[in-house]
Specification:
Elements (H helix, E strand, L loop, with lengths): L5 E9 L2 E6 L15 E4 L11 H11 L2 E8 H15 L1 H14 L3 H4 L1
Antiparallel strand pairs: 1-2, 1-4, 2-3
Length: 111
Amino acid sequence: MEDNHLVPYYIVLLGNMFYAGGLARKKPVDLEDEVFSHEYVSNEELAFPILSREAADRIASQCGGVVVPKEAEMNELIEIGDLNERFTQSELEWEKDQLKQFLGTTPRENK
């Protein structure tokens, strides 16, 4: 028997943009305050699904956005998360494509 109950999750909306995830950045040593770096997308389908209301509230507070409650079946929620991850992790693949296009090679091919 398949469990089709709805799972609550949250997305963060900032104007017309949706929170897609945090960006890994190293904080400069001379800054005393905490520093945040977030990525936003124009397509809601790529928004990062946040499972904790508290985490969503914290992110919304950091960026001045609002929390939007959502629900999805577990299999749909997994697909939403997978789509977000494929998108946010595509930067390295894009960089490789650009290097290959302009230099005719990628860094690994040079080694």
